[in-house]
Amino acid sequence: MTGVLRVGNASGFYGDRFTAWREMLDGGELDVLTGDYLAELTMLILGRDRLRDPGLGYARTFLRQLEGCLGTALDRGVRIVTNAGGLNPAGLATAIGALADRLGLSVRVGHVEGDSLPRPDALTANAYLGAFGIAACLDAGADVVVAGRVTDASLAVGPAIARFGWRPDDLDRLAGATVAGHLIECGAQVTGGNFSFFTELPDGGHRPGFPIAEIRPDGSSVLTKHPGTGGAVTVETVTAQLLYEVAGPDYLGPDVVSRLDTVRLRQDGPDRVRVDGVRGTPPPATLKVGVNNLGGFRNSMTFVLCGLDIPAKAALVRGQVEAAVGADGLEFTLARTDRPDAADTETASALLHVHLRDGDRARAGRAFSAAAVELALASYPGCTLTTLPGDATPYGVFTADAVPQADVPHVAVLPDGTRLPVPPPSRTGAPATERTPAPPQPTRAAPARAVGPTRRGPLGELVGARSGDKGGDANLGVWARSDATWGWLREWLTVDRLAELLPETAASTVERYELPNLRAVNFVIRGLLGQGVAASTRFDPQAKALGELLRSRVVDLPAALTPGPPTAGEANR
Predict the structure, then answer these.
(1) Strand bridging mode 79-82 / 144-146
(2) Which residues, listed in sequence order, are joined to residue 301 by a DSSP beta bridge?
(3) Does pLDDT of 535 surpass 90?
(4) DSSP 81-149
(5) How much is the pLDDT for 167?
(6) With left for phi above 0 and alpha for psi between -120 and 50, is residue 195 left, alpha or beta?
(7) Which residues make beta-bridge pairs with 400?
(8) Tens of pLDDT along 218-243?
(9) What pLDDT, on a 0 to 100 scale, did the predictor assign at position 1?
(10) Are 274 and 220 in contact (CB under 8 A)?
(11) Do 250 and 436 meet the contact criterion of CB atoms below 8 Å apart?
(12) Measured distance CA(142)–CA(93) in Å, rounded
């Protein structure tokens, strides 16, 4: 079939802009509207919901959003595809049917099952399914398709398969649609949300619109948004999202491996970026499985340390808290937010964050927080806390493993109730680490080639960055804004230099990948987030701000690439 498939997205996470579904339906022409609700942390939240009520386990917000726009979608022939089914796609499909009956609407609902795996020792265990189950539901006439843990990109790939009749061996087409799906999966993050250069956006980044991928029969696409909405769609906003939560050039998926080093981006008019050239190779023989377990209980208290002797004050608190509750499971983080000779209390103060994780809810609860409060009149001078004593809360631990694709019963449940098995791919490939040689990995932070005069300035004057989390690992993508800057960046920003600029990464195994077509380097920092977002005690537990921290570091920039005069004595450094 020819033509263009217009796939919009109205949700990038569970809690995204509530009105986006209505905005996207009313804003212009669409064929399909998708909503991504799932993340590793979300699966833990839904798992806890299901413990309280076995009938739950899906994103209930989606039902409230659908109530106000299901009739509009049906009237306009816009089909809805979402992973809001979470741990209970059948339950959400039934709830949608009941909602339609209450609204006096006739709706055909299909759903996808099979991702939930029997793991008695886990709170949740879900394989990341592909797009062919979604496509089967659409082929059977579904107005709404509900999935559980499919890959985020599958929400867009499935409709493209159904529209264009692609087969499992149409690897380049599937890869192109996968890239398009990855670009729109995080909603406004591709239209200027969380963008390093937000001050350059037409509306200053105040209310970016949600994205649309115009997917073509050959798998190429154009990224855009509805006219009159905020933000922007530029090569750089698209680059930023393309680098989000990826690793090396091989972007592994259940239907295809998309080669990110083949992606071509070019501006195709105002708020239009063409995405083409994507090559695909056979998918791996295994599926990723995300596993969530309850890890225990946690609690935190924060002490304010003002004025002189900050390290000694922190040491006193540490000794007192350890004496009161024992040292096991305690973690102390001293944030030196204080300034010397400050004129007010806040700028003269540092923060000592004290965390406790334990399998014993009582020890991590009031026993800990009350012990901290009891120090108020018996510790360092000026002792005060920012937190009241409270009970412990449970936390989760995320891990990932893999299972053979053939062992997962991927099933499309069609609107008439027919259960249609979705076969695994007949052709698979070896893992990327076996198929391709390791990418060049510069590690030494020795001075780069002479680049002429330099000037001191923040790295972010020349580069953008986007960072995020994958389980316990952090991803940090950095792109150059010009070819000349890319020539400098790819040599200068090594693994060792990253450790100098971000010392917290020095103890981690760091993988470095180059994507020259995007003028970008991508770092995967193994273990930086510990046991995952829900268990992490970092100030930035999802590493969302890691890229902006890197951009803020003051370094020697090539003066020829930056405004302003060179720094005296820094020539040829």
Answers:
(1) parallel
(2) 354
(3) no
(4) EE-TTTT-HHHHHHHHHHHHHHHT----EEEEE--B---TT-SEEEE-B-SHHHHHHHHTT-SEEE-SS
(5) 98
(6) beta
(7) 290
(8) 999 999 999 999 999 999 999 999 99
(9) 55
(10) yes
(11) yes
(12) 11
Structure-block tokens of residue 131: 């797009």
Q: Is the pLDDT of residue 130 over 70?
A: yes
Structure tokens at 384: 């005060």
Residue spans of beta strands (DSSP E) within 312-389? 330-335, 349-358, 384-385
Q: Which amino acid is at 117?
A: L
Does residue 302 contact residue 368 with C-beta atoms inside 8 Å? no
- Give pLDDT tens digits for 377-398: 999 999 999 988 999 998 899 9
All residues at 6 or more sequence positions from 424 whose CB lies less than 8 Å from its CB, including other chains: 405, 406, 408, 410
Beta bridge partners of 395: 296
- Rounded to an integer, what distance in angstroms lies between the CA atom of residue 168 and that of residue 405? 14
For tokens 């996470």, the residue is: 13
Q: Which residues pair with 354 in a beta bridge?
A: 301, 332
Please name the amino acid found at residue 341. D
Q: Give the tokens for residue 435.
A: 């198929």
Amino acid identity for residue 476 in this structure = L
- The residue behind tokens 């499935």 is 158
Which of left, alpha, beta for 405 (phi over 0: left; psi -120 to 50: alpha)?
alpha
Q: What is the pLDDT of residue 434?
A: 40
Quick: pLDDT tens for 416-456: 999 999 999 999 997 554 444 444 455 444 444 556 899 99
Q: Exposed (0-12), middle (13-18) or buried (19+): which is 353, by Cβ within 10 Å?
A: middle
Please choose, from the candidates 410, 418, 422, the residue with its C-alpha nearest in 3D space to the C-alpha of residue 150. Answer: 410
